[in-house]
Amino acid sequence: MSEKKSVLQGFKEFLMRGNVIELAVAVVVGAAFTNIVNAVVKGVINPIVGAFGSQNLDNYQTCISAACTVDKKTGHYADGIYVLWGSVLSAALTFLITAAVVYFLMILPMNKWKARQDAKKATEEKSAAPTEIELLTEIRDALIAQRNGGSADPAAASAAAAAIITQKSPQ
Fold first, then answer.
1. pTM of the predicted model, to two decimals?
2. DSSP tag of 59
3. For 22, 36, 66, 82, which has the most beta carbons within 10 A of its beta carbon?
């Protein structure tokens, strides 16, 4: 029973990890986004291409054998070996549009946001570091303690001053 519980607990922990949930959300959003991209290709890109020929990119094909016959009703090759390069072009356009939208609407803004967050974090870390006046005050106090014999061991006081200088100085 404890093995089942540990296996189920491990599976639950796996599912509740942030990256697994984010991946599931990305798949769902990507599936919904596919419909938008397909609508843009069919509603915008295909009519633009249609201005130069057929509006349906799947109609673009080339016969590569000598014995090709064309069906006069549909305009498609009936016999022979032909390449459907229009459907490949349509798929490539769909991919490029999808990649561009994902990059410009999701990746680029996220990278800019992360850069701003890193810059904020760096400025917060710099402000947490001691100021020059604080460093000089600590060095002065260490030197006074060394001169006045405040430390039983003068070498320890000078080592402490050197340690303060190396730890607190900006690199």
1. 0.47
2. G
3. 82
Angle between helices 2-16 and 18-40 (to 10 degrees): 50
37: how many CB neighbours lie within 10 A of its CB? 21
Rounded to an integer, what distance in angstroms lies between the CA atom of residue 154 and that of residue 131? 26
Q: Are 68 and 82 in contact (CB under 8 A)?
A: yes
Flag whether pLDDT at 22 surpasses 70: yes
- The two structure tokens encoding residue 47: 């009519």
Residue type, 153: D
Say if residues 45 and 93 touch (Cβ distance below 8 Å). yes
Structure tokens at 114: 């992360």
Name residue, tokens 């060095």: 139
The CA radius of gyration of the chain, in Å to the nearest whole number, is: 35
**Angle in degrees, 0-180, between the axes of helices 85-102 and 18-40, rounded to the nearest 10:** 130
Q: How confident is the model at residue 112 (pLDDT cuts 50, 70, 90)?
A: very high
Tens-digit pLDDT profile for residues 78-89: 777 888 888 888
